[in-house]
Design goal:
Elements: H1 7-21, H2 25-57
Length: 58
């Protein structure tokens, strides 16, 4: 369960399931959606930091 705390799990697990176990979209879609959510959160955090940096420079 510890591995699920890291975003790399959601990159590697679908690849491993498809290549080793012949998984399909239905077996990996939850991992892909979680990864998309993690990416969206990181993009939002970077956007907030960038806006604060621009405001401090002005």
């Amino acid at each position: 369960w510890v591995g699920k705390l890291f975003p790399t799990y959601y990159v590697m697990n679908p690849i491993m399931e498809i290549t080793r176990e012949g998984g399909s979209w239905s077996t990996v879609n939850l991992d892909v959606f979680i990864l998309i959510g993690i990416i969206a959160v990181f993009v939002a955090i970077v956007g907030v930091i960038a806006n604060k940096t621009r405001q401090q420079e002005a």
